[in-house]
Amino acid sequence: MSRARRAFFRNRTAIAGLVMLGLVVLAAVAAPLAPYDPETRTDAFRSPPDADHWLGTDQNGFDVFSRVVFGARSALLVALAAVGFALAVGVPLGLVAGWYGGWVDGVISRVVDVMLAFPSVLLAVAIAAAFGGGSVRTVILAVGIVIAPPFVRQVRAAVLQVRSLDYVAAARALGANDARLLFRTILPNCIAPILVLATLNTGIAILDAAGLSFLGLGPPETYPDWGVMLTKARVYIQHDEQWMLLPPGLAISLTVLGFNLLGDGLRDAFDPRRRS
Amino acid sequence: MSYALRRILVTFPLLLAVSLLVFALADALPGDAADWRFAKQPEAKEAWRKARGLDDPFLVRWGRYVAGFATRLDLDRSYQDDEPVGPELFRKLAATFELALCAMVLGVLVGLLVGILSAVFPRSPLDYLGSVLALGGISVPIFWLGMVLIVVAVKVLGFPFSTNRYDPALQERVADFRTHLYLLESLVRFRLDVLASCARNLLLPSLALSTIPMAVVTRMTRSAMLEEMGKDYATTARAKGLPARRVILKHVLRNALIPIVTATGLQFGQLMGGAVLTETVFSWPGLGRYIVASGVEARDTPVIAGGILLVATTFILVNLLVDLLYVLIDPRTRRAP
After folding, report:
1. Is A119 in contact with B25 (Cβ distance < 8 A)?
2. Which residues have C-beta within 8 Å of that of residue B59, sequence separation ≥ 6?
3. Model ipTM?
4. Cβ-contact A115, A89 below 8 angstroms
5. Cα–Cα 20 to 30 A to A36, which of A134, B243, B253, B276?
6. Domains in chain A: how many in total?
7. For position A256, which CATH number holds?
8. Distance from C-alpha of B306 to C-alpha of B158, rounded to nearest angstrom
9. What mean pLDDT do residues B127-145 have?
10. For residue B274, how many other CB atoms are within 10 A of its CB?
11. pLDDT higher for B216 or A37?
């Protein structure tokens, strides 16, 4: 692990990703220091950036800068919750499918195949709509379900790789039961690929969630969320009011880029062949 | 049994399972268009539900739906006016298909080129351009990029932007078209005025959408090329005196193409669905936007079920095609193990 850690910290792009995410986390933590409340109307509507409102105000009179800062909370909450859901569902299913094989594996793998036969954005739209749409919770659930199948596949493949190794047989010979074998013996050796997948999928989750919000299936218009902010920006770019368009989009891009760089860095660090 | 045949056969149960999931999701939607249509006449609604067979058990309705689609390409009738939803859905599917196809072609061409060049010249400025493309395409939200593109192209550069698929003045020139694939059909019929109009209207949305496959293909090409270039057969080919260009284009690229083709097929399917965001930004009359606007918002269940089923079916068929193409590129897969 320490060799992987050293490889990771020598990787400049991975550190850049970490710095970007640090900024986002800082914004989320320090959000109450923002100059305005993100859901309180000011007396300026759709006004361009000036000294009072650094990034201008939107159609509701909300301060764009404060909403971008608070939006970091929404993005991180949704993405981490969705990935958490995918992990909670995907890891046990993958472990069971890879370990027991047979019809259990058959059923789980076919369900995964069917879910992967859908374009993910459309599946997320259908799930969000089926749950009623219109809240942060439905977005988390829809995105979580959509990104879960790759976790099942990855964990299943990792289990297949290690299940017949000597150390597993040794643990079994010592009397370990299935649950102990799966979670204490096998799972720790599959952590690296799961961690990489989870990091990369956090970025995907942010993009998917923003897309759902943009399509009107996310939280209500007043909620400080980057995707929601862009829904109305579409209307106002026709009036040359670009200050509502650029900040949320740049914030999403920076965050997702951060997760992608971090994920790539972790993958390279864990994979001895990729270390240069 | 040959690999190809087996691959074709497993497609049927997959399609069946996909239709079941689609039908279940559409069925789970809270409320439907009929609630509004018969807002003050519960008896009329009951009679209507009975006549449409909506009170039958779930599996019966699903079986009827699948049978209708499989035998007549029928996708049920709208809950709003009882008109068949199929014709409009297929028209929208054609619009989405052309958008995804153009984005795909653009993305694959640029991605292959940049990917090959960055592998051949590592750490060159081109390689850095490649990394920017590869990371940007998967990090920037596609709908935001689309809006930025509109601002730059339309507001700054004055590019004529239209939300039609072709210039309405050309209405008569497309009257005899058999399909709704205006771009492809005008190309086949060599009707250049229609072709130019279609291409111009497709340019901005497909440019925005192409960034996704561009990123994936650039990244895959670069790593696959680097991996193949390091193998013994490439060294051997160089050692026996073949020019580097020939080794790279004939030997290495052909092997590197195998994972790239798979990724491309998967990407095409994702684009068909992911296009919903691009279509919304550019008001492109495609299937994704139609599913959200006329299906989800109006709660017209058959539109949602039919639309998603069409996209998923296209996705599955494209992946099937890619897997069969595989057999052509990689002779090793011709015999099943």
Report:
1. no
2. none
3. 0.88
4. no
5. A134
6. 1
7. 1.10.3720.10
8. 38
9. 88
10. 25
11. B216
